[in-house]
Amino acid sequence: MKATNRFSIHFKLRAERTKDGFAPVFLGLVVDGTKSYMALKNFQADTEHWDKIKGGGRKDTRQGRAINEYLDEVRMTIRGHYRDMELNGERITSDTLKDAFLGNVQDGAPIMFSELIAYHNEQALALLSIGTMRHYYVTQRYLIKFFNLKYKREDIALSALNYKFISDFEIFLHNHKPVDHQKPMDTNGVLKHLVRLKKMVNLAISLSWIEKDPFKGFKMKKKKVEKEFLNEWELESIERKMFKIERLAMVRDMFVFCCYTGLSYVDLMNLRPEHIVKGIDGEPWIKTFRQKTSIPVNTPLLISAQNILTSYAGNIRAISKGMIFPLLSNQKMNSYLKEIADFCGIKKNLTFHIARHTFATTITLSNGVPIETVSKMLGHTKIATTQIYARVLEKKVSDDMAILRKKLA
User: Can you say whether residue 198 is alpha, beta or left, with left for phi > 0 and alpha for psi between -120 and 50 degrees?
Assistant: First the structure.
């Protein structure tokens, strides 16, 4: 086989070990600069019929041609192993190719990525929420698309994972255009998929399915994004707006309720009558757990939230499910919120999660509630997460002062 920058095979006669006119032949493998050598077992060549320059048998003798026939079989066998490893997406080095030739592959076959996915999902189903598992399923589908594009197959060996694989997958995610939206993923969207992949890779390392961490030295890039929230005027305009369409009025009520409680969409949908209890001050509180982190949430109900609760006390749709509010998908919620924003003249991209941000900023922090208290009510595991909202408020103060300067100028 002719040498290439990627893969070459050559043979060398060890003449210094000649005995009775025969000497051992060593096989040399070079793959991307890595080299391995080994003696061909049970084979020695007649030194008189060896061509030192060409590294094979002499073509002008019958014995030399017989040597070349054997060496050609060795070449074909190695090429076959190389092709199989390449198709399987295995990491190919001179050592792994040598092991394949010698039959030293452990357990007879490489561990495939599909096995890692199956094992991860089996374990994670008992630990993660359905929503979180859906995110993993999306990441896994992107991986399969990447396999198809790069390797022309839906599965690869775990041994193929290296730094370049991670880097190539990152580029693939940036360039990929999903069918459900036209623009490629932003930096933070790509990061979420890489984080999930890293968690699966860490599992493979813990299981000793791979030896080296392909993420070693790889830096994940996160773009800082300011949290959007409603100011007092925007929140009031939504609260006071009269909607003739029942679905919009219902979504508005649930959104405003979360603006005054800090609940996320999923925690609102999980809210049951038994989660409303009398607090230490004798007033109604929400006592529940965040589905995302299982962190307890203890939040006193402000009067606006209490009024909304009262208005939904007899809601048939909610009562039939044992819930406080009617169940509605997050997708529909966000779709209806776009309509609500248009009706109220709000230019911001109104999503349900903005309610949680509004509670943290406009309702609590801007009214002097200590950040530690806000963090507790939001169910944050780290105070640093809540501090993001404090930085947003600093920007708001700066903007407000800029307006004041213009008025006083």
Answer: alpha
Are 134 and 71 contained in the same domain? Answer: no
- What distance in Å separates the CA atoms of residue 10 and residue 209, rounded to the nearest whole number? 32
The owner of tokens 């003798």 is 61
Judge if 161 and 239 occupy the same domain.
no
Asked whether 10 and 55 are in contact (CB, 8 A), the reply is yes
Cα 350 from Cα 378, distance rounded (Å): 20
Q: Would you call 55 helix, strand, or coil by DSSP? A: coil
| Nearest-angstrom CA–CA distance, 257 and 269 | 12
Give me the domain span that covers residue 162: 113-206
Contact 50, 67 (CB under 8 A): yes
> What is the side-by-side order of every strand in the sheet holding 34-46?
7-13, 22-31, 34-46
Any domain includes 219: no
| Alpha-carbon span 268 to 326, nearest angstrom | 10
Task: Concatenate the DSSP letters of all residues of 280-302 into one string.
Answer: TTSSEEEEEE-TTT--EEEEEPP
Instruction: Please give the backbone phi and psi of residue 53, each rounded to the nearest 5 degrees, phi first.
Output: -70, -45
- Interhelix angle 94-102/62-87, rounded to 10 degrees, is 110
Q: Scan for tokens 């105070």, then name that residue.
A: 383
* 119 and 96 part of one domain: no
* One domain for residues 176 and 264: no
Q: What total number of domains does the chain contain? A: 3
Average pLDDT across each block of 10 residues of the chain; the chain has 409 residues. List them in order.
63 90 91 84 88 91 90 88 80 80 60 90 85 90 92 85 92 82 77 95 91 89 80 94 94 97 94 94 93 87 96 92 93 94 93 94 89 91 82 71 84
- The kind and range of the H/E element at 191 are helix 187-206
Return the CATH number at 370.
Answer: 1.10.443.10
DSSP run (H or E) holding 28: strand 22-31
Q: Does residue 357 form part of some domain?
A: yes
